[in-house]
Amino acid sequence: MAAYYLTYAVKPTAVTEALTVNLFEADSPCLVLAKSTHLQVFKMGEQGLEPIHDYPVYGKVACIRKMTFPQMKGLDSLLVMTDDMRFFVLTFNEHTKKLETHTNGNLLNPSSFPMETGPLVAVDPDCRVIVMAMYPGLVKILRIHGCKFEEEASEARLDADQVLSMAMLHGCAEPTLAVLCQRADQRFVKLMRVTSRNELVEVSSVWKTRLEGAVPDSAHFLHPVPNTSEGCLVFGADAVVYADANGYKAASIPEMMVQAVADVDDSGARFLIGDSLRGGLALLVLEREEDQVQQIVYEPFGETVAPSTLAYLDNSVVFVGSVVGDSQVVKLETDDDNQNKIIVLDTHENIGSVLDMCSLPQASFGETRLVTASGAGKDGSLRVIQRGVNITSSATVQLDDLQRVWVLTKPSGEAEAATEESFLALSFAGGLAFLQFEGEELCGFEVPSAPSDPALLCSNVAENQWLFVTEDEVVLVCAETLARVAEWKAAEGQAIGACACSEKQLVVSSGRQLLIFEIAKGKLTQTKDTTLEHELSCLDILPVNDDGTSVMVAGTWNVEAKVYHLPSMRVASSAPFKAGVIATSCAITRLGDQNVAFFGMGDGSVVRYIFAEGSWHMTNQRHVHAGKQPVSLVSCKFASGPAVVALSNTSLLFYADSGRVTFSTLNEANLTCVAPLSTPAYPDSLVFSTPASLGIGQIGRMNNLHINKVALGFSPVSLTTISANPSYVVVVGHVDQEDGGIASAIRVFDGTTLEMVASHELPAPEAVNCVIQHKFKDDNTEYFIIGTAFVDPTETQPSRGRILISKLENKKEIAIVHECEAAGSVYCLTKMCGKDTDDLVAGINNQVVHFKYDATGQDAAKKLRAVSGNQNFGAVVSLDSCDDIVLVGDMLNAVFVMQKAQDKLQLVAGSQTANWVSSCALVNETVFLVASHAHSLSVCQREFEPGSTMQTLNAKFEIYLGETVTSFVRAALGSAAAVDSSMPLRNTFFVFGTMGGGLACLLPLTPPQTELLTALECRMEEKIGGLGGLDHREFRTARDEQRMAQQVNPRLVDGDLVETFLQLPEEEQKELVAGMSLMGEDGRPYVVTAEVAKAALEAMARLH
């Protein structure tokens, strides 16, 4: 059974909490965002929020709080609480310039079940105590003396069925806690003093007496009010109450769910509140007279994303964090008519909550597009996730037989106000042609002195000159006068085979002869003529100094890579290529802080070398498969940095990222040549050609994943694809009605443009739950099948539902071909597509029902009919199938396997361990993936249990994620062709999405990979300390609903941890693997070097 490698392609993006804190400098606030298992820190710059740190947290962040110790001289500390009841406090050390752990601890109670709402944490404004509610009826109290924490937390009982919210109040002689409680159907606020003995004592005061009966029945949130004596705001669904030691004041507000509140300042008079259900911001103003609040004023500002948290930044700028849509940075303004309005300054991408996923393969590039159903309510959307670098086309013209293209420039106008004119040099089989840019237009242009033959090279060189190289001659042209100022011709019978130039130097090869020229104003001076041992198939040069010293890389016809010092022609290093494969092009450039050489090979691969620091010795050889055609390499410079483009039938872009050389696929098919371009009309662009056209476009961000958004305006719950040409994406979701009901939407989108092509509505109270694609036997129609439920508020579980067999007609209409009544909610569907079956299986409440779609009796119309089923489940929420095997995910029990035998589904295997299943998937007929609501992921295997008629499903290895998995897709985000051929088959790769907006890849490992990466992970755990002193091994250990750790199994490698090896300095890499020896596939031990480890990790990194 294969081991697996787990790594996040997209870290969790949903923002659960946001704080502005003076973490690194006094009076210089930064923004801290909690995103599930990591913390992001931004500084407030002139251009907006600038990311400065992204800290992984070995635990799911439940809450973060600011702590201001009086002794810290304006610096704040940060309290972090994880959902497994661990906490730590971070403080900036001004001497080491690092965040350090001030204190940490574990407050887990093994015998208690945590609160369903998660831990609640309140910090005393004067930093005397921290109160934490984590278990029903119990709080824990941490006492602080100055900056020192007591070693043990104290426990205190709290008489309430449920604690909804807590707040530590300002202006109190003793630490005072307001607690919003619920007992039976009643909600009330308690006021509790924390005594010096860490006991909670309820206060019978005017504050409490006056609040009697004033707490709204829908009260759900408390917020402390600064600069007051025991001031607190109590928020209900349509009311807000302010209370303090002097009394209380209530006011009505529009119906909203307030869970996000931010102080505008420290005056205690103005607060921003957000509607976490529908989105929108409002200002709440407490108008006072003689320290008493006389009126609460509610001022709406406008619509935003539905907020989960708010942070006031400065100058009316607010960060609106969300878990269901893109977080926003907004500015609050008042227009000339005194009307409030919101201006969105920036958005922070969030693909959470991911409720379902499907894949759209792209045959042109060998990549996969993932489409997610994300978000909720008005912020619901589709997210299209694609690996590669996009070229956004700005202009295209039909042009046949173009072989090469270059961009030439020259200054225009007076020196003080000079601009730059740009031209295109186009090489065809019949010769050279030129075009000039005039704004956005391209016009014909003549260069009479240029060669008439096809060019091997055109380039800008020193002294405002253009250089042209053909097979027969070298021509130097003055760019200003267009006159030929120098030339050199090859000897009769000789032809230039390869050439390259810099601003002041030209190198050409002809046969075994190599010539070096110096370029000056109006001069082309030959400085070297030497005979080589072998002919060169390609060459490129990189200037080292201004004195003409350069380095040349070359591919030879005896299948070898060589590096030369110029002008001495001394060989610096050499390396053989794979036997029989010639390098057709090469490039040498500096990417990041490394000098890198690339060789484009005739078999469609690229060989890359990195030069050792301080030398020109080729090291760290890597092979990347680009395509099936010979590779042409082009060095480019973009605003985002230098890059090398490898052109084959699939094109790759090599660039530096986080200190290492990586690559992405260019999402433009059949490129034949490219050249960087930057003009006023086309800044930071690229000229590119295909066999039939010439285009101009802009290069997208140089990263592996691009995420595009398609706004839906409703809550998507499920989606699928129709693979007809063109492909379509079918989305089903819920549409909120004004009367509080939920209608259902069915939408069909074009799979290429993602424009909506068809729509259908199902009226309330019918709610859609799921949709799958299916094609029945003897029917070429591709159907999408929808499962629904009729929602009745009086029922604990729906008693009615439907299965709708639908299709897309005329590419614009949704037709319901057949409907079948179901005795409950159709939560999930799957199809059985074995050799002799095309049946449908549905999860209906606690049943698994097996359907056939056929014609029976005298009626020729096909209908769904139930042929078998099983009612012994709790709640069937997830199904997957392979041939005649069905995997059943039961949310209230565990996972089960059913198999079709004699035309009926029979239960054949089950797990003996209870598990609150959130999603499941089949790897093959015996191996299964199971995700639980306890945030763990298991890989299970069917095994025969002696003495039992049932097989058992045993978890072979488990890992804790810190997130709930909602959907699995059999796909690879990376290009499998770019990885070593020993990588297991691509159809065993999985991507899963999470509620927190994360996308992770689960990749199978070969035994040698498992041994190497597991050993490396163990060493990384020792080397890389966790933030706040948290332990990585404990974090990744699967746990149950009580947060108790289960058995550790090492066969799931944490890729996020081991890939940090690539960011370590070279000396630390060598130190970390020192003395590591493993057994090779041939049974012999081998020493693991830093190069071996990097090669293995880079191969895995290409897959996500």
TrEMBL record:
Gene Ontology cellular-component terms listed: nucleus
Compartment(s) where it occurs, according to its Swiss-Prot or TrEMBL record: Nucleus
Source species, domain of life: Eukaryota
Keyword Lipoprotein: no
Keyword set includes Membrane: no
Matches recorded under InterPro entries: Beta-prop_RSE1/DDB1/CPSF1_1st, Beta-prop_RSE1/DDB1/CPSF1_2nd, Quinoprotein_ADH-like_sf, RSE1/DDB1/CFT1, RSE1/DDB1/CPSF1_C, WD40/YVTN_repeat-like_dom_sf
Domain RSE1/DDB1/CPSF1 second beta-propeller intervals: 394-698
Keywords from the named record: Nucleus
Residue ranges of every copy of the RSE1/DDB1/CPSF1 C-terminal domain listed in the record: 743-1062
Location of the RSE1/DDB1/CPSF1 first beta-propeller domain: 14-342
GO molecular function: nucleic acid binding
PANTHER family recorded: DNA REPAIR/RNA PROCESSING CPSF FAMILY
Family of this protein: Belongs to the DDB1 family.
UniProt protein name: DNA damage-binding protein 1
